[in-house]
Amino acid sequence: MNILIINKNNLIWIDIHKKLNINTLNKEKLRYIGAVTGTFGYKGEMIVSETPSDITNIKSGSIIKIGFSPSFTKDYVLENHLKKNDSFIIKLKYIDSKELALSLKENGAYTDEINIISNDAESYFVDDLIGCKVIDKKIKNTIGIIKDVLNLPANDVWLVETEKGELPLPYIKDVVKRVDIENKRIEINLIDGLTDLIKNEKEKSEE
Questions:
Q1: Per-block mean pLDDT, blocks of 10 residues, the chain (207 long)
Q2: Under 8 Å between Cβ of 177 and 189
Q3: Can you tell me the distance from the alpha carbon of 8 to that of 108, in angstroms, rounded to the nearest whole number?
Q4: Which residue, of 2, 65, 118, 201, is most buried by count of CB atoms within 10 Å of its CB?
Q5: What is the predicted pLDDT for the residue at 207?
Q6: Alpha-carbon gap, residue 16 to 66, rounded angstroms
Q7: Which CATH architecture fits 126-206?
Q8: What is the bridge-based pairing of β-strands 185-188 and 133-136?
């Protein structure tokens, strides 16, 4: 798809997909995520509906293939996603406006099966998590503030800034008990040994 940029002296056509690669993965490993049925907001987020029930999460940074069939797709990088019932709200790299998102409507979305996570965990936008207070559910004590999120193969890790240093908090059911994005509050079960993972600034600089 080409778009027209107008400045004072020139009309310039650019291809917004020039950095995106045509599908090269083995099609037998592709999983259908759903169909692009609409947009969400004005920054390029898209609604992907009809998601199979066993797909509960997708690794951020995964290649998402959009097209009318697995044989005719283009590759996009998944920046953010949020699971809502049987749908996903996804944000793809280079798709930064409602108009660009609408250009992909009614296409299918696919990804390699290795990118799919099947578990009971909810997923959240990284921007929504950053700044949330992390609270010990048992004693109601504030542990720290989430400052970053790492997308790792086994599970996401939320980096919590505490008074003693940085705590890598694994996003697993045994630890994270309640997430309240609206009130920027996360309650956790402070399991044995978790605080031993805290790294202070001096330790990080010596690594």
A1: 39 39 50 92 93 81 90 91 86 95 94 75 72 91 90 77 90 88 90 77 48
A2: yes
A3: 39
A4: 65
A5: 53
A6: 15
A7: Roll (2.30)
A8: parallel
Domains 2-117 and 126-206 share a fold: no
For 170, the enclosing helix (H) or strand (E) is strand 166-170
pLDDT at position 146 is 94
Structure tokens at 31: 């999983």
Domain residues of the chain, as ranges? 2-117, 126-206
Spacing of C-alpha 171 from chain mean position: 13
Q: Alpha-carbon distance 164 to 167, whole Å? A: 9
Contacts of 165 (CB under 8 A, 6+ apart): 198, 199, 200, 201, 203, 204
pLDDT at 203: 52
CATH of range 2-117; options 2.40.30.60, 3.40.50.980, 3.40.190.10, 2.40.50.100: 2.40.30.60
User: Which runs of consecutive H residues, i.e. helices, occur in the chain?
Assistant: 98-102, 126-129, 201-206
